[in-house]
Amino acid sequence: MFENYAPDIEIIDSKSVEFIDDELLKAYRSAKYVLNVNPVVEMKVDSHCSQLDSLLKERGWGLVAFITPENPYSEILSESENQKRHETFLNYLELQDYKSDELIGGYGIDIGEQWPRENSYLISVGSEEQATEIARQYDQNGYLLHMIDEATKLILCR
Q1: What's the whole-model pTM score?
Q2: Measured on CA atoms in the order 110, 156, 76, 95, is the torsion positive or negative?
Q3: Could you tell me if 64 and 118 are in contact, meaning their C-beta atoms sit under 8 angstroms apart?
Q4: Do residues 157 and 12 touch, judged by C-beta distance below 8 A?
Q5: Which pLDDT value is given to residue 18?
């Protein structure tokens, strides 16, 4: 069904496309994903980002995921609910031995800015499976995965 629509999206769970409608998938693909660093780094799905590569090389990171704990399954929550999710997300990462300097904050925003910004984190991961596990832990439809010298990929995991 989606092979012709989005052949370059990696689908971890083939059932995930049943839960994500075409408009939402288009929104994910066209959104911009911004890292709060100086200078600002902006990622886009299916695009290579040399500024991101430079940042990763500086930090000694090879594979990273950009994940939000906010708005599970793209259902908008209140600011206080999302704040609680951030706290549990950061606690979870700390239990996984992440240090605060191993996270880079940022946000995702749709092109039309109809959705509120989703605060997110760029984290170094050992594998795609690890990133998928984290995204699933926080009920996300998907996340971005980036490896140095490659285009950023949208990974669907629901």
Answers
A1: 0.87
A2: negative
A3: no
A4: yes
A5: 58
